[in-house]
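Supplementary Methods, section 5.1.

A reviewer requested that the exact input to the structure prediction be made available. We therefore reproduce it here, unchanged from the version used in the analyses.
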Amino acid sequence: MPMRSCAAVTLVLMLLLFGIPWLAEAPEGGQAPSEPLAAEEQRADADIALTVWDGQELRQMTMAEYLPGVVRGEMPAAFSQQALDAQAVAERTFICYHMAGGRKDAHPEADVCTSPACCSAYVSQEDAAARWGDKAEEYETKVQQAVRDTDGQIILYDGSPILAAFHSSSAGVTADSGDVWSSSLPYLHSVETPEGEDSVPNYYSVSTFSPEEFREIFLAAHGDADLSGDPAEWFRDRTVNDSGRVEHMTIGGVSVKGTEVRQLFSLRSACFTVDTGEEGVAFRVTGFGHGVGMSQYGAELLARQGKTWQEIIHWYYADVTIGAYKE
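The structure derived from this sequence is encoded token-by-token as follows.
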């Protein structure tokens, strides 16, 4: 999943937004939120200009206009306010991180786009209202409040915006970034997360393929694999990492990463087992998403336990501070 820019708010507003968090004790393993920047150094959402590619045309928007759309698109609005606030901060940070790194090749004339395959899922207020039905007014109020509650605030590591990765749910432990991507980031380590079968829809899922379907998909990526004979003999040497996700396994004599298997067969996560039988090859999967960073369903449970959005951020991102965006 994963590059771009973030003016002045009054002292009164600064105190209202950030005064209380200054007094909050940081959760174990985290740091207390950083002291906000001086008022003249802060960048509020209304002062952050974005060029947005909506798939058809370029649109000029402020962060204040764009951010509600991705909060609507990425987290259920039925979630608790503090979870939605944490999501708004993660989204804002994610945007600022990518803006700082330069525009993507997929949209070189735009800072961000509205595609979840490239940037983040974006849902307009009108489309969300149609989906939410009689809850539309309540849910839109919560989304807008999440953006206002956290106006201009991002997650920082060594003073720079982090890659604020998030996912839907994990199997008790989030993934270390190095287990999923090419390198480990110091603020994206595995942490315990409280969600489970009772709190997450479709927490367990099964994806089944006939032997013929499995062969076609796997051989297209690994033509040298031997997928002859009994499918039960195709799978060997499955290893898992500390977060319970498949690290490597051998399929038809070829060693592959669990993340690749997930991608090839469109599995909901890399936390899976493999069974073979009369129905073919069955992947039994737990959780949803790459597993790195904030678990959204975990954030919801932490919010229900009384955690603030700041505490949720520090729960999932190690050794970070929270402060206003500054170019």
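Confidence is low (pLDDT under 50) at residues 1-40. These observations are discussed further in the main text.
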